[in-house]
Specification:
Blueprint (H helix, E strand, L loop, with lengths): L2 H16 L20 H13 L6 E8 L2 E8 L15 E2 L4 H14 L9 H4 L12 H5 L12 H9 L31 H15 L3 H13 L20 E2 L7 E2 L16 E2 L1 H12 L6 H7 L3 E2 L9 E4 L4 E5 L2 E10 L2 E7 L6 E6 L5 H24 L3
Antiparallel strand pairs: 1-2, 1-12, 3-6, 4-5, 7-8, 8-9, 9-10, 10-11, 11-12
Helix pairs in contact: 1-6, 2-11, 3-7, 3-8, 3-10
Length: 390
């Protein structure tokens, strides 16, 4: 397949995924192992998931407890070489990047540079008057009612025409600027990629500092994230986990560098590693970046699921989700984009964590059975984490 055809096909796949329904899935049932404890059980489950028909070419899970760190991996980071995935491999973290914008916003709230009740009308008066009453709090817990720019016809058409098109990341909301709110702010939950674009713009407006600099100063530096960045283009830093399109029954197609990241920006454009994401979620879920008041506000839960749904029963806080599994509760975020699906989760004190990454985009619309199976495997990994049997 030519590079041009590969890019067009990948863009079409991504466009379908962006416009897929965001209805939450019911809690997944446990997989083959009712008791996920033991070294061999987790490895076998990850191997089985990778080798299922249409499964991701590679997967890596990092479990960290007071006893130490365990890495479980299956498949290959690059099917051309067969090299196994490693914790220092770069990857697209997809919508788990929304937790980073939440970390920036809540740190600014803690520093009194922003307030959760600040409105778009106050901080971003150039945006449509119909959106004026939407608050930072509503953006962070997806109750804003903002229409999703990534589902707009104009955005999708530009992406299909040129997957490497350089979008003006700070003007992405212009694609839906002529649309009204989907509902009265605060009355419904609706996951929207527009929300975290607006969060980043509010942070910039409050500090007169580029969002990329805020990430470095408020998140990367205090949590010692040395391999995390927010690129604009499509190139991946080496070494990296190659992401694949597995929609064809033939050999998986490498789509790692097919799509530019300027069109997702604060909503999902960050590149990181399993090692860095482990450090991030331990600090983020544990509330190490801001004080107790901000943490308490962040953990005011509403009914709503991440995208894709995480393990167990999901509820939404401020840029974080609560996953109630049969073994206990973890806090975190999920995400998927072309070539990658992610879960990061940790105990509320941040002492135990799980980073779970696979190298294919697994969605309800494209592979509902695979998503259900993945959630079951993730829940078993969470159980092993909480029981201290990793």
């Amino acid at each position: 397949m030519s590079l041009r055809r590969s890019r067009l096909r990948a863009a079409s796949v991504l466009a379908v995924c962006l416009t897929a329904g965001l209805t939450a899935l019911p809690p997944a049932t446990a997989g083959a192992a009712a008791d996920p404890s033991g070294d061999q059980t987790l490895q076998r489950q990850l191997d089985d998931f990778v080798h299922r028909p249409g499964g991701p070419p590679g997967a890596i899970a990092v479990l960290q407890t007071e006893k130490g760190t365990r890495v479980v991996r299956a498949g290959a980071a690059d099917i051309r070489t067969g090299r196994p995935p490693r914790p220092d491999d770069h990857m697209r973290i997809a919508s788990t990047a929304k937790a980073f914008s939440g970390a920036v916003a809540l740190t600014l709230v803690d520093h009194h540079a922003l307030r959760l009740d600040d409105t778009l009308g106050k901080r971003l008066p150039r945006l449509p008057a119909a959106w004026r009453s939407v608050t930072l709090r509503q953006l962070l817990n997806h109750t804003s009612g903002l229409p999703d720019y990534s589902r707009s016809e104009g955005f999708i058409n530009e992406l299909r025409a040129d997957p490497h098109h350089h979008f003006d990341s700070r003007r992405l909301l212009d694609y839906v600027a002529g649309e009204p709110l989907l509902f009265k702010p605060g009355t419904q939950y609706r996951y929207s990629n527009s929300d975290n674009i607006a969060v980043a713009l509010m942070a910039e407006a409050a500090t007169h500092t580029p969002y990329e600099n805020l990430l470095r100063e408020l998140v990367y530096a205090p949590l010692r994230l040395h391999s995390t960045s927010l690129p604009q283009g499509s190139r991946m830093p080496k070494p990296y986990l190659h992401g694949y399109d597995v929609s064809s029954p033939a050999r998986p197609e490498d789509v790692s560098e097919v799509i530019g990241m300027s069109g997702v920006w604060a909503s999902g454009g960050i590149v990181s590693t399993p090692a860095d994401m482990t450090r991030f979620i331990r600090g983020y879920a544990g509330g190490r970046l801001y004080g107790r008041t901000a943490v308490e506000q962040q953990r005011q839960w509403v009914e709503g699921a991440s995208e894709p749904a995480g393990p167990g029963r999901n509820s939404a806080g401020l840029a974080v989700f609560r996953y109630e599994t049969r073994c206990g509760v973890v806090l975190g975020h999920t995400g998927n984009t072309l070539g990658y699906t992610q879960l990061i989760a940790a105990t509320p004190d941040g002492r135990r964590s799980l980073t779970f990454s696979v190298t294919a985009q697994i969605t309800r619309s494209a592979d509902a059975e695979g998503l259900q199976e993945m959630r079951a495997v993730q829940e078993n990994f969470v159980c092993a984490l909480l029981r201290g049997t990793n």
